[in-house]
Design goal:
Pfam families: Glycos_transf_1. GO terms for molecular function: glycosyltransferase activity. The chain is of the alpha/beta class and about 425 residues long. The chain folds into 2 domains: about 240 residues, Glycogen Phosphorylase B (Rossmann fold), CATH 3.40.50.2000; about 160 residues, Rossmann fold. About 40% of the residues lie in helices and about 15% in strands. It has 17 helices and 13 strands. The chain has a 7-stranded parallel sheet with strand order 3-2-1-4-5-6-7, sandwiched between helices. The longest helix is centred in the last third of the chain and has 18 residues. The N terminus and C terminus are likely disordered.
Length: about 425
């Protein structure tokens, strides 16, 4: 994208073939895994440009964002904010051979989604297609809902192939017909859980593969805790067991159930909860903690960068994230924070929702309880609060599983093969073999 789109960083190489990654927002504290992926691909020789549909709303970033060299450009979030830019793009793009196909696709989509948002995606695609950098050879959408809508139109206008990474909310809250259309148009789609892969694979036509590729974790950044944790057992009021939860305050995280469960713990059990993350439900959760009489034992730390979150994992004794399926169908895939917590040898208590059971096996490397079941969650937490040896055993087993199966180097190598065009079949076989181990 041209520099007028703002915040371009790093040297541009306009004549070199490059991939354009289209994201909903960038940079975002809650999507470190995307920045890690881009950085990993850059280190494998890829020239990437980032285009975001939304400017950041938080000035804070993770250290990984400073390492990413890809220039960053922004499309107009709302068309009325940049009408001349959109109009100029339309005047140029409408002369291209692919414009008619993109317009025809819009006319097919409008009866199913007769909203201003649909028109906004088409307008953003006009700007994207018009301002693509010289040498752009490929478009990649991160998330199969909004970014993929923009990329699908832009790919028709520009005559470029496109691919997609699907994650969690975008999979579970998108209509089947919309998913099927995008899966048919993309060369391939990758997703980060078996549950998500199975849903998408059932909608994809033959010849349009849906591949499982866990995000993985940069084990260089998340080195194991160098010293053993203290043997806290909840018996000392001056040294309570430290429980950590990392996640946005949104319904699918089940934070209300976590507070209810903590309120059920025996009066003589001494604990303290630290929550890391922002989100629209924070005020309600703080009020709930007060109503339950546990507000004095909860620290609301707000959003934090990766280094501070790592410090929180290392200071904690137990990690809890009782995920659920929200009322609109939204749910987590495999929360990256669960992988991060286990990389630090933390015992994890969670629920058998989404992709969590693909990492956590109940009783082997963590505890899983039914979602929305505060008494069951309280029992699992109480068991581990009182038993530091059990916490340590589960934490070590989780740490070993992350090291064996969730090293980001393997997933990045598989993605690199896909982007290099070495062959979807070969990469798919590698991913399937790794998942089966």
């Amino acid at each position: 994208m041209p520099r007028r789109t703002g915040e371009a960083r790093g040297p541009a190489s306009p004549t070199r073939a490059c991939a354009v990654f289209v994201l909903k927002g960038y940079p975002r504290l809650s999507e470190t895994f995307i920045a890690e992926e881009i950085l990993g691909l850059e280190r494998r020789g890829f020239d990437i440009r980032i285009v975001a549909l939304r400017r950041p709303t938080d000035d804070r970033t993770h250290p990984v964002h400073a390492e990413v060299r890809a220039p960053v450009g922004y499309l107009p979030e709302y068309l009325h904010d940049a009408p001349l830019r959109v109009l100029a793009a339309w005047r140029r793009v409408r002369r291209r051979p692919g414009y008619r196909a993109a317009r025809a696709q819009l006319l097919r989509d409008l009866p199913r989604d007769p909203t201003r948002n649909r028109l906004r995606r088409f307008g953003q695609a006009l700007v994207l297609a018009d301002e693509l950098p010289d040498g752009a050879s490929h478009l990649h959408a991160h998330f199969i809902h909004t970014p993929a809508s923009v990329v699908r139109y832009a790919s028709l206008m520009a005559g470029l192939p496109w691919t997609c990474s699907a994650h969690a909310k975008d999979i579970w809250t998108s209509p089947d017909r919309d998913l099927a259309d995008k899966l048919a148009a993309a060369l391939w789609t990758v997703t980060c859980t078996r549950a998500g892969r199975d849903r998408l694979d059932a909608l994809a036509p033959p010849g349009r593969p849906v591949l499982l590729n866990y995000h993985g974790l940069s084990l260089d950044r998340f080195r194991p805790l160098p010293t053993p944790r203290p043997r806290r057992d909840g018996g000392d009021v001056g040294d309570p067991v430290r429980i950590l939860c990392v996640g946005r305050a949104v319904p699918k995280k089940g934070l209300d159930t976590l507070l209810d469960a903590l309120a059920l713990l025996p009066p003589g059990r001494h604990w303290r909860l630290a929550h890391v993350g922002g989100g629209p439900e924070l005020a309600n959760l703080k009020a709930r903690a007060a109503a339950l009489g546990i507000a004095a034992r909860v620290d609301w730390l707000g959003p934090r960068d990766q280094a501070a979150v790592l410090d929180s994992y290392r200071a904690a004794d137990l990690f809890a994230l009782p995920c659920r399926v929200a009322g609109d169908g939204d749910r987590d895939g495999l929360p990256n924070v669960v992988v991060e917590a286990q990389s630090q040898g933390l015992a994890v208590v969670s629920t058998a929702v989404g992709g969590v059971p693909e990492l956590v096996e109940d009783g082997t490397n963590g505890r899983l309880v039914p979602p929305d079941d505060a008494p069951a969650l309280a029992a699992a937490i109480d068991e581990l609060v009182a038993d530091p040896d059990r916490r340590r055993a589960l934490g070590r087993a989780g740490q070993a599983r992350v090291a064996r199966h969730f090293d980001s180097a393997a997933s990045l190598d598989a993605l690199a093969r896909l982007f290099h065009g070495v062959g979807v079949g070969a990469a798919a076989a590698d991913i399937a073999e790794a998942a089966a181990e």
